[in-house]
Specification:
It holds the Pfam family Pyrid_ox_like. It comes from Paracoccus homiensis. InterPro entries: Split_barrel_FMN-bd (IPR012349), Stress-Dev_Protein (IPR052917), YdaG_split_barrel_FMN-bd (IPR038725). It is a single chain. The radius of gyration is 18 Å and the shape is elongated. Strands 1, 2, 3, 4, 5, 6, 7 and 8 form an 8-stranded antiparallel sheet that branches. It is 27% helix and 39% strand. It is of the alpha+beta class. The termini are close together.
């Protein structure tokens, strides 16, 4: 695995939210993702009646997931395919108190829907975090040099 790919997955693994949507309408909604590095997928737990679940029920959809987290120093736009999943073992693995708060009957609720997002590519910006940013800005003012804002790269997934 390349250093950039490892950096991408490593930082994404420490973040749990982003904005997800089908590229056909670009209506992005906040969603919690679960990283599955073994399969290279992101998983989402949603309700069957949501717009994303309804769109994915028609077949796999081109989708985008945007993650921005200053604390972890990761900003990324991830492209891929979003589809429904009926994988109960994966749902059991991912289920947690946050997901349970949305469904009256827990993971047995008939409205629970698992979504699988298979990333194909990502554009990534990484930084060393907020304090490093402030340091670089201050240093730039003192030295007249441009600040080092971190790395920018693309990865195929």
């Amino acid at each position: 695995m390349t250093d950039n790919l490892e950096k991408f997955w490593g930082r994404l693994d420490d973040i749990n939210t982003g904005m997800l949507g089908a590229t056909s309408d670009l209506r992005l909604v906040p969603m919690s993702h679960y990283v599955d590095r073994k399969t290279g997928c992101l998983w989402f737990i949603t309700a069957k009646g949501t717009e994303l679940a309804t769109q994915a029920a028609l077949g796999p959809k081109d989708a985008i997931h945007i993650v921005s987290d200053a604390r972890e120093g990761l900003y990324t736009r991830i492209h891929g395919q979003l589809s429904l999943s009926e994988d109960r073992a994966k749902l059991d693995e991912l289920w947690n108190a946050v997901a349970a708060s949305w469904f009256e009957d827990g993971k047995q609720d008939e409205d629970v829907q698992l979504l699988q997002f298979r990333p194909t590519k990502a554009e990534v910006w990484t930084t060393d975090g907020s304090l490093a940013f402030l340091y670089e800005i201050a240093k730039a003012h003192l030295t007249d040099q441009k600040p080092d804002m971190g790395d920018h790269f693309s990865v195929a997934l």
